[in-house]
Backbone:
């Protein structure tokens, strides 16, 4: 298999763009192809990024280490999908607690032994709250697959011992097995004819296009050489999963209907097309504007569109970085892992609501609602939100919140661990909302003097001294006013009026900043469209025709149709 893999990766792709599946896309594609209950790319090397995203064709390299991971993942995934679990030999497990859960992989009979410390006091035993009628301390029960709660109630309990399974019942084929053998035959009853049919369907879905008779015959070679059809199908599936036709999305200058379907599905779902997209591509109807609009709407409402929130949103807004940031615990003891999760969840739910409700993209700038639980609401100083569950909250006028700029996740990732940074925040706005990134700083520029910050000098005063350097003035005159508008938010996004002992001078403030951005919302729309187009196409792209009054789905359709 290793020789086959290395040979396959040398297949010519001249004149075409090859998009290697990144880690997230690989996991999602295997999930939708095989429904295996794990993430096979969990230990893959971290993907390189370009233009702010980790799905850019030119930077997604293929290292020898990744080749080895592909081989191991293919073998693990194929085995999990095809090899049926075999009933184990009976074993013994002992539990000291009286109340416990017992994982049952195989339905069958199990012997229960209840050991007491002394005497023969009465014992009651129950399964998921249902009593077992028995007067003995040793008896047999029948357990189905699952994780039942077992309770042995006695003041003198020493331990509970379970032995089994006896007379185990082999479970029905898994969803993964059925996706490989969609012929419906039970294990051990497959023929070469159904193997051919199964492989043709499997390869079509894995390669995301119709397959040729030669490709099917090449895969059937593995089945014919194996000791059993199941064994041959496992090897053939491994060959599919290490093929460049699976690992890469090949895009020539002019896409055919199936390549267009793949571009759309990896844009919105980070995964392979589903049956509806395949069918429309086969009928050459997917590019019809009305049908495309309906499909985009359907796909954005599908739970798989969470990938767009996590992958595009998390990288565009840089909130992915929140996972690795650690604000100074001495200055910000309130910042816990729970609060970190809440911050990230707020932004994800806000983004998801714009997608789900097809809101105007201007909501990103100044939406008057957000999603909070009690902990994050208390952090923001917003009353009447109780419980751990997130819910939509209409923001009070005096909340100092509204839009992504005032969400704690964005404010935290655009700060230093110990203090705010108007420079980073201003640069963040220029890059991510206005598509006008500043040039890199010139070499040998001295760092900001942070001595006495908050005691005798504010960040603004120190930056004014820094900006006096002619080499710094040009860029800082663009970045700093934007960042200072957010200075009322500390380094973890909490509202404040003072920096230490000194009052905050935030210039016009966050509300005026949002209004300024809204007045030029077409510029923001072009920026967002450019980010979406770059993410969708896997290369630097733009969409100069985007306008600020579009809804999210309208912008998506414009991107997938017209991006350059």
Residues:
């Amino acid at each position: 298999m290793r020789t086959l893999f290395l040979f396959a990766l040398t297949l010519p792709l001249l004149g075409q763009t090859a998009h290697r599946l990144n880690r997230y896309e690989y996991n999602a594609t295997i999930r939708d192809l095989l429904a295996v209950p794990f993430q096979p790319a969990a230990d893959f090397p971290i993907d390189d990024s370009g233009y702010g995203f980790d799905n850019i064709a030119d930077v997604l390299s293929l290292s020898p280490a990744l080749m080895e991971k592909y081989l191991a993942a293919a073998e693990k995934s194929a085995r999990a999908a095809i090899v049926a679990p075999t009933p184990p030999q009976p074993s013994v497990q002992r539990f000291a607690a009286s109340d416990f859960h017992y994982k049952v992989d195989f339905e069958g009979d199990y012997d229960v032994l209840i050991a007491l410390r002394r005497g023969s006091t009465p014992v009651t035993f129950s399964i998921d709250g249902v009593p077992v009628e028995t007067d003995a301390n040793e008896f047999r029960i029948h357990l189905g697959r699952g994780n039942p709660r077992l309770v042995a109630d006695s003041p003198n309990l020493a331990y509970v011992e379970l032995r089994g399974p006896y007379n185990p019942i082999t479970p029905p084929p898994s969803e993964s097995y059925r996706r490989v053998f969609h012929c419906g035959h039970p294990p051990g009853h497959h023929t070469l004819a159904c193997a051919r049919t199964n492989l043709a369907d499997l390869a079509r879905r894995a390669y995301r296009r119709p397959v040729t008779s030669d490709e099917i015959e090449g895969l059937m070679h593995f089945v014919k050489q194996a000791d059993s059809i199941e064994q041959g199908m496992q090897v053939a599936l491994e060959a599919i999963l290490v093929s460049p036709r699976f690992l890469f999305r090949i895009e020539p200058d002019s896409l055919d209907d199936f390549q267009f379907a793949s571009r759309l599905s990896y844009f919105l779902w980070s995964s392979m097309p589903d049956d509806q997209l395949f069918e429309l591509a086969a009928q050459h109807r997917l590019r019809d504007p009305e049908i495309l609009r309906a499909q985009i709407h359907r796909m954005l409402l599908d739970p798989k569109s969470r990938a767009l929130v996590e992958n595009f949103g998390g990288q565009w807004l840089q909130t992915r970085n929140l996972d690795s940031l650690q604000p100074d615990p001495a200055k910000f003891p309130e910042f816990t892992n729970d609060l970190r999760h809440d911050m990230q969840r707020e932004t994800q739910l806000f983004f998801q609501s714009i997608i789900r409700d097809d809101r105007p993209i201007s909501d990103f700038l100044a939406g008057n609602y957000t999603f909070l639980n009690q902990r994050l609401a208390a952090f923001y100083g917003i009353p009447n939100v109780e419980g751990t569950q997130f819910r939509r909250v209409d923001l009070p006028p005096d909340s100092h919140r509204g839009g992504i700029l005032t969400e704690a996740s964005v404010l935290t990732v655009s700060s230093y661990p110990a203090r705010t940074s108007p420079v980073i925040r201003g640069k963040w706005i220029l890059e991510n909302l206005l598509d006008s990134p500043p040039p890199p700083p010139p070499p040998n520029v001295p760092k900001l003097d942070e001595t006495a910050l908050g005691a005798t000098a504010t960040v603004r005063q120190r930056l004014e001294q820094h900006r006096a350097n002619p080499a710094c003035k040009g860029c800082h005159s663009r970045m700093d006013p934007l960042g200072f508008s957010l200075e009322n938010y500390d380094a973890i996004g909490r509202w404040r009026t003072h920096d230490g002992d000194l009052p905050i001078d935030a210039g016009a403030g966050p509300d005026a900043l949002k209004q300024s951005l809204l007045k030029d919302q077409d510029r923001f729309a072009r920026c967002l469209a450019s980010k979406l187009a770059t993410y969708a196409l896997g290369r630097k792209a733009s969409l100069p025709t985007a306008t600020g009054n579009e809804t999210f789905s309208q912008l998506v359709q414009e991107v997938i149709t017209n991006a350059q």
Q: What stands out?
A: The first helix runs from residue 2 to 8. Residues 147 and 292 are 44 Å apart (CA to CA).
